[in-house]
């Protein structure tokens, strides 16, 4: 069963801090929304990947999710 990644654990920032910064930073807000969207797409693809979803498409979604996570990390570092 597919499981969503815990973004906050990956970022090493408490959820409260990220949410507080999100309210003050439109770029961070947009990136976090984009991450949730792509993570949901990955979960959906993994749940149907028993032949209906191409492995290449799933790999591409995971790469996009990782790229967005790195952008979020950079955005958080800018506001430190």
From TrEMBL:
Identification of the protein by name: DUF465 domain-containing protein
């Amino acid at each position: 069963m597919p499981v969503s990644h815990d973004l906050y654990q990956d970022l090493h920032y408490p959820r409260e801090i990220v949410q507080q910064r999100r309210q003050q930073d439109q770029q961070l807000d947009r990136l976090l929304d984009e991450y949730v969207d792509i993570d949901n797409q990955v979960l959906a693809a993994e749940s149907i990947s028993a032949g209906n979803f191409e492995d290449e498409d799933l790999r591409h979604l995971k790469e996009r999710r990782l790229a967005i996570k790195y952008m979020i990390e950079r955005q958080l570092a800018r506001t430190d």
